[in-house]
Write a structure and sequence with these properties.
The chain is mainly beta. The protein has a domain of 157 residues. It is 3% helix and 47% strand. The chain is built from 2 helices and 63 strands. The radius of gyration is 24 Å and the shape is globular. The protein starts with a helix and ends with a strand. The relative contact order is 0.06.
């Protein structure tokens, strides 16, 4: 088999170039006699349309690709690209005029990336495994962040695992030193398609680093980016911030600020953990955070978590929301399950809030969930002397939300704190004090809210174990039953 591989690599393949009617494409090989010894050397020698075939083995990362090529490994269990920060950079940051490449990556493992900076500096680390940076639409040097889309990239039959983004510097932008991290596995500002791929155990931010805010442990799809993700797994990724600077952490699995289509994909076991000493400690969106446009079909978002604590802070706001999915943009979710996600908050005093165990919808543009299951999600918040709010074990809505043929089942909210406000075991439909001005609109059609629970220590009185609302709800052929200790508040 190895002899056949080397023979294939040694023969130039006559193909018509994607950019020239007269040039021919070739297959270059890496590893073995007569082949390049490094992937970067092969990339530097390649022309548009070439294929780089990589033999089994482990090869150095830190590779920059700025030519139209296919990077073809011998299989994710055989060919590994390891190290660098990022492991692969595809395209040129802030390139003007935009002329980003079209690249395919197949059959490799991308691991061991340790990114400590980005094109903005060492206070903004992006893309631990794969970085697809933006181009530039005007000169000089993208004034006012006039970015354009980056490269067009296809990743298939690949594993992206064990990569990190942890900034080493800080900048005085936030009333003090601060730094940011995003995209532990992938950071995308281009047109990215990911198929039959595992994005697992990557990390954004870290304990004790200067990171103020960290995002997207698995995949970051930024405002200019488009993401198509199918038949893949996004699992075990983490976002972490802590003292001395840490304040907010977001999107354990996927952060979407552009346009994302996710189909037949599992987003599971991702986590967001924030521990701080400042006035705010915030953790959001254990599985998926959407503030762009999201279509999610035939997928599972399960066993993700968000957790926030301020063990020594005085009077802090400690807030967690959306153990599974947070929707701030537009979203359509269908034929999917959002299950066994959790949000937990703890602090000795201050304001301690946990909300939206499965889903939080804050979209002014509208979110629709069809033929789906929201079940076995949970929220909890505890404080010795603070004000405690537990709201929305399954769903929290303070935007425009429609549930059609959807079951909200066996979600729960709990607090051990005396005097806690505890509301909406299944669904909470209201507005936070000081929150967005949108009047919540909740529509439930052919749906079910059953077997949800609230539990609290006296003298706290749970309200709306099935549904809690302070606004009218449109109910059509929807059952609210079997919730404990009550069915509905405000109906």
């Amino acid at each position: 088999m190895r002899r056949l591989f080397l023979t294939t690599c040694a023969v130039a393949v006559a193909l018509v170039s994607a950019r020239s009617g007269t040039a021919t494409a070739a297959t270059l090989c890496v590893g073995g006699p007569g082949c390049f010894s490094t992937i970067q050397a092969a990339v530097s020698a390649a022309h548009d349309g070439d294929t780089i075939a990589i033999a089994p083995g482990t090869y150095a990362g830190g590779i920059t690709i700025d030519v139209d090529i296919t990077l073809l490994g011998a299989g994710a269990n055989k060919t590994t690209i390891e190290g660098g920060g990022p492991v692969l950079t595809i395209g040129t940051a802030q390139q003007f005029p935009p002329a980003e490449p079209t690249v395919a990556v197949r059959g490799v493992t991308i691991t061991g990336g340790g990114t400590t900076s980005g094109f903005l500096g060492d206070w903004d680390a992006v893309g631990g495994g794969v970085e697809i940076p933006p181009s530039c639409t005007i000169q000089p040097a993208c004034p006012s962040f006039e970015y354009g889309p980056g490269a067009t990239v296809t990743i298939a039959n690949t594993v992206i695992t064990g990569n990190k983004v942890i900034p080493t510097g800080a900048i005085p932008l936030c009333g003090g030193p601060c730094a940011f991290a995003s995209g532990g596995g992938i950071d995308n500002a281009g047109a990215l398609t990911v198929t039959n791929t595992a994005v697992s155990n990557n990390q954004s931010g870290s304990m004790g680093s200067p990171t103020l805010g960290a995002f997207a442990g698995g995949i970051a799809n930024v405002r200019l980016g488009t993401l198509t993700l199918s038949r893949s797994r996004v699992t075990g990724n983490r976002v972490v911030v802590s003292a001395p600077n840490g304040q907010f952490a977001q999107a354990g699995g996927i952060q979407n600020s552009g346009a994302a289509k996710i189909d037949h994909t599992v987003v599971s076991g991702n986590g967001v953990d924030a521990t701080g000493v400042g006035s705010e400690v915030l953790a959001f969106a254990g599985g998926i955070d959407d503030d762009g446009s999201l279509t999610l079909t035939n997928s599972s978002v399960d066993h993700n978590h968000v957790a926030a604590s301020a063990p020594t802070a005085v009077g802090a706001l400690v807030l967690t929301d959306a153990g599974g999915i947070e929707i701030d943009g537009t979203a359509t979710i269908s034929d999917s399950s959002i299950t066994h996600n959790s949000a937990t908050s703890q602090a000795p005093d201050g304001q301690v809030v946990a909300t939206g165990g499965g889903l939080l919808a804050a979209s002014a543009d509208g979110a629709t969930i069809q033929r789906s299951l929201i079940a076995h999600n949970s929220i909890s918040a505890d404080s010795t002397n603070g004000s405690v709010f537990v709201q929305g074990g399954g769903v929290t809505n303070f935007g425009l939300l429609t549930l059609d043929q959807t079951r909200v089942v066996a979600n729960r909210g709990a607090s051990r704190s005396t005097g806690a406000v505890i509301q909406g075991g299944g669904i909470w439909n209201s507005n936070f004090q000081g929150g967005p001005p949108t009047t919540p609109q909740l529509t439930l059609t052919n749906s079910e809210i059953t077997a949800n629970t609230l539990s609290a220590s006296p003298p706290a009185t749970p309200q709306g174990a099935g549904l809690y609302t302070t606004y009218p709800v449109a109910l059509t052929r929807t059952a609210i039953a079997g919730n404990r200790p009550d069915q509905c508040f405000g109906c």
